[in-house]
Amino acid sequence: MVGRHVMGGLACLLAWSAAMLALYPFAVHHPYWICIQVVLIGMSGAVGTLLQIRLMDVAKEVQTLAAALNHSAFNAANALVPYLGGLTIAAGWGWTSTAWVGVALAIIGLIVWWFTVKDEQRTAAANLQ
């Protein structure tokens, strides 16, 4: 089902990620809740699969190049996100402040998603004319 609704799935996973990361600072001091919270946060990792599906759909005949660039983007994110989280810790906001970095990045992802959907709608309307 998600294969037919990739963009909707992406929006849901980004919203899920933002919500679960926002709950993290409140759950971290309770051992049972944090165990559940870590699993719930981990579920948002499925966004990588949906991004890959989306990329293969739009890449057409350059799928190999697109896949390589997708992996490069994930590697860049794997370096940037801990750096940003480290900045919040270095600023003295505490180690749970890293969750708010994740929330902000998920919201930025939702904003990019929204612009992408609007661009697709505008392109589809232009192709009908």
UniProtKB/TrEMBL annotation:
Record keywords, A-Z: Cell membrane, Membrane, Transmembrane, Transmembrane helix
Subcellular localization(s) per the UniProt record: Cell membrane
Keyword Ribonucleoprotein (UniProt): no
Pfam families: MFS_1
InterPro entries: MFS, MFS_Efflux_Transporters, MFS_trans_sf
Transmembrane segments: 31-51, 72-93, 99-117
Topological relation to the membrane, as annotated: Multi-pass membrane protein
Record GO cellular component, one term: plasma membrane
Gene3D superfamilies in UniProt: MFS general substrate transporter like domains
Any GO MF annotation of the entry: transmembrane transporter activity
UniProt name for this protein: Major facilitator superfamily (MFS) profile domain-containing protein
